[in-house]
Design a protein that fits this description.
Number of domains: 3
CATH topology of the largest domain: Rossmann fold
CATH class of the largest domain: Alpha Beta
Strand content: 5-15%
Largest sheet: 7 strands, parallel
Structural class: alpha/beta
Radius of gyration: 22 Å
Distance between the termini: 46 Å
Number of helices: 12
């Protein structure tokens, strides 16, 4: 049986809580730099302790303000917190549109908080492809909790389920969010609903409507989503929201579903990594390999259809010659 991978120098520095090295590694992961893989391998056996909580919902519902409240609540309780804020990508630079994430706040020099903004880079889930690996880096760094705030682009937010063990969907009254949530698929992924801006008229009605919708839906694995109201601006309802999150985390352990959920999540991650690597290698081969270039030419001239080309590539494998009929 193979032992644990040998620790790289960078891995040792992460375990020693070197924040500069952690920041550099996160940048390398975000840029899909293959040089970071040995460090990710070395740190993987030292992960699995931190709980990852997703904060999803439409734009403008106050997710960042609510996250600030949760951050303050956890720090007051002496818990360490990593924050990954996934922002929309610029179509021109590929970078985060919201830049330095000034909406998230922490006390200067607080060693118990690490905040990182990441660009979604056009990934179809609003969740950057690297987010899961970044949460593991924060886990190995020693954070008790990792809070992942999504891009807030409706349907694509559902992929937070592939990262977080508990998903909080944030809404506000009078924006038709209940209906939009149903359309977007967020209703199916929510473990906790939070109606933010409860100081506005209609918050209680919005919560009531959600309870009626949930009563008509089938519970997922025995868990019925909790519904709460909060006002991030006034700090109202933050403790109750965290209590609901903790209740779901306890449920996962007591019901024995955490391991099965993690297995499904890892399966999806492995498939995604294989797809990413094979896709990258194939794209390079299409540009450089004369055999594949010839195949692409024949598809272009309509002599071979794309599906047949894929079958030829898969049958040939990485080393065998490609024979096109």
């Amino acid at each position: 049986m193979r032992g644990r991978p040998r620790l790289t120098q960078a891995a040792r520095q992460v375990l020693a809580q070197d924040r500069r090295v952690l920041g550099r590694l996160i940048s390398a992961v975000e840029n899909r730099d293959p040089k970071v893989i040995p460090t990710l391998r070395a740190l993987y056996p030292r992960t699995g302790r931190a709980r990852v909580i997703g904060i999803a919902g439409p734009l403008g519902v106050g997710k960042s303000s609510l996250l600030n409240g949760l951050l303050a609540h956890l720090r007051a309780a002496g818990r360490t917190v990593g924050v990954v804020a996934v922002d929309p990508s610029s179509p021109f630079t590929g970078g985060s549109v919201l830049g330095d994430r000034i909406r998230l706040e922490r006390e200067p020099g607080d060693p118990g908080v690490f905040i990182r903004s990441m660009a979604s880079r056009g990934h179809l889930g609003g969740i950057a492809a690297a987010t899961l690996e970044v949460t593991r880096l924060l886990d190995a760094f020693g954070m008790d909790f990792v809070l992942v705030e999504t891009v807030g682009s409706g349907q694509v937010d559902v992929e937070v389920r592939e990262v977080a063990s508990t998903a909080v969907v944030v809404l506000v009254p009078h924006l038709g969010d209940e209906v939009q949530t149903l359309k977007a698929g967020l209703f199916e992924i929510a473990d906790v609903f939070c109606v933010n801006k409860s100081d506005l008229p209609g918050a209680d009605l919005a919560a009531k409507d959600l309870r009626e919708l949930i009563s008509l839906a089938r519970s997922t694995g025995g868990w019925t989503p909790r519904i709460l109201t909060a006002s991030a601006r006034d700090g109202v309802g933050i403790a109750e929201l965290w209590a609901a999150i903790e209740a779901h985390e306890r449920f996962l352990d007591e019901a024995g579903t955490r391991a099965a959920t993690e297995r499904r999540r890892l399966s999806a991650e492995i498939v995604g990594l294989v797809t990413e690597r094979v896709g990258h290698d194939l794209a390079e081969s299409l540009r450089r390999d004369p055999r594949l270039s010839n195949l692409l030419d024949r598809v272009l001239s309509r002599e071979v259809d794309p599906h047949s080309a894929v079958e030829q590539i898969l049958r040939a494998g990485p080393r065998r010659p490609i024979r096109v009929p």
